What does this fold into?
Amino acid sequence: MIVYAKSILTPALALIVWSLVMWIWLYATRIPAIRAAGLDPASAKEPDSLNVLPLKVRQVAYNYNHLMEQPTLFYALVFYTALAHRWQADTPLILAWIYVVLRVVHSLVQATVNAIMVRFALHVAGTLALMGLAAWNLWKMLG
It folds into this structure.
């Protein structure tokens, strides 16, 4: 168990699991909202057709989409780190966990209170952790 806790791949697994939790949350809110709105699912071919759903429902969907965007860079960096640096180092592991925690908090903020400035600060902080992970890899490669 200790080996997995110190693996750079574990934060990637954690973010994947979180993304699946958000997927469940998405459909647990969206399907009842579609039914309540009397929408025919076949008419929802365009994302705009779901704009009639309550904002609280759409916020969860927006966050799920966000988890499919920037985190792709995170996954690539984590796997690069694991492959390029066969040893376990604390700095990339800490940066990876910081990124994951910030993404989870960002999700919770966006899917609930949706405070824009809080979301923005969390996004910036997460991006800085991602940049730190990229910079660490670049420093190790060049150094």
Q: What stands out?
A: The radius of gyration is 18 Å.
